[in-house]
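Lecture 7, part B: from sequences to assemblies.

Below are the input chains for today's worked example.
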Amino acid sequence: MRSVKEPGAAHDGFSDWYWQRLSAVVLLLLLPLPLFLLVSVYSGSLDQQSLLDVIDHIYSRVLHTILILALIVHAYVGLKVILEDYVHRIFWRVPLIGAMLVMMTGFGIWWLALIWAWA
Amino acid sequence: MQHQLKTPERPLSPRLTIYRWQPGMIASLAHRASGFALVLFVPLYLWLLRGMTGSTEQFDATSLWLHSGWGKLFLWMVGVSLAYHFCNGIRFLCIDTGWFESRTAMRASAFIVLGLTAVIGLLLVVLL
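Predicted structure of the full complex, as structure tokens:
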């Protein structure tokens, strides 16, 4: 990075790179929490009521929301970069990236609705 | 001079067929592959979340499925993809901040990450 003299022709590649790293750090910190919950449930040391008590808590919901937003950003930028690298025809690339954006957003809204709908 | 303006058939990035396979290249490609795999499992995560936070019957059914053969296969595939993506993600972040940037360090860290994933994969087979 230190030796980069010329930015790319598009001049906006840095934002993809930056958001990818920023969301990665958020996921690095937050993802172990739900993984720990999943392992606890799988091993039987956490029953459903205890699980609901944990994830219903307001702190859990806020952290969960940040996690899902970071996940959406991370997955979107990651898939976008993959599509930009391997799909060379603009005719396919642009609709594919658009469709992916719509699917990711839909997934995120669905997930957030589930989290916040719990009584 | 008209003929010079025509774009010749040149190889497009990423030039997988041109470069010799290296540990760092395998690590990068596996990062994409595992990331893509993790996205493909998104509907299952939603289904899991719904099942686990739904009625008691739904919770029991979800738990039963997770302990079945397909459930274990799913957990293993997601587990290995996530373990790799997580470890190599940390490696990428280190490289971005300027640590382990040398050729030998990048090669060694790629081997470490790939080896670590293999170990986690074996551990998951035993533990699941």
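Note for the exam: Residues 18-38+48-117 of chain A form a domain with the 3 helical TM bundles of succinate and fumarate reductases fold (CATH 1.20.1300.10). Keep this in mind when comparing with the next example.
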